[in-house]
Amino acid sequence: METFVRYTKFDGSLHWNHPATYLGADQHGTWLGVPAGATLLRDTTPKTLSYKFVMLFPRDAWWTACFNAQPTRTELYCDITTVPVITPEEVTMVDLDLDVTRWRDGTVNLLDEDEFIEHQVKYDYPPQVVKSAQDSADWLLRAVRERQSPFDGIHEEWLRLVP
Q1: How does pLDDT run across 35-57, given as a tens digit for each residue?
Q2: DSSP 8-state assignment for residue 49
Q3: I want to staple 72 with a disulfide (CB 3.0 to 4.6 A). Which of 4, 24, 42, 68 is the partner?
Q4: Where are the domains of the chain?
Q5: How far apart are CA 131 and CA 124, in angstroms?
């Protein structure tokens, strides 16, 4: 079953958006797959990927995760977002700029702190949004570094389902 993934910015403008295949759900959330060769749109600019990946959308957390197959340099890319709204047809959330990555060598980084600060002013993020985003980034940094579930390899079983 195809599910459309739609990230927006805080002002409602389109960010990343693309179709994905529903793979299933577990205690961590909803899993979607995207095959190698898929074209994603950033706003309206297409980007064709040479690798497959699975996405995890938790039911009640301020983040999403992309677990990438080889040959990417990033094994894991987490976006700090509003809590995803998940329906069978679509998953939507607001991208809140901060990202947590885990590189293939195990290095974990927090990215785009400058963009987060800039957008707090530009989009007038409410204080609770700022706090939730910062708390989520702090939690993700720890969980990803320590390889806590679902960042412990559980994604591999889902990745095998993507052609």
Answers
A1: 999 999 998 899 999 999 999 99
A2: -
A3: 68
A4: 2-159
A5: 13
Per the listing, tokens 């985003």 go with 133
- Give the CA count within 13 Å in the CB-facing half-sphere of 50: 4
Q: What is the pTM of this model?
A: 0.96
Query: Which CATH number fits the domain 2-159, given the four candidates 3.50.50.60, 3.90.980.10, 2.40.380.10, 3.10.450.50?
Result: 2.40.380.10
pLDDT-above-70 percentage for the chain: 100
Tokens in use for 49?
Answer: 């990927």
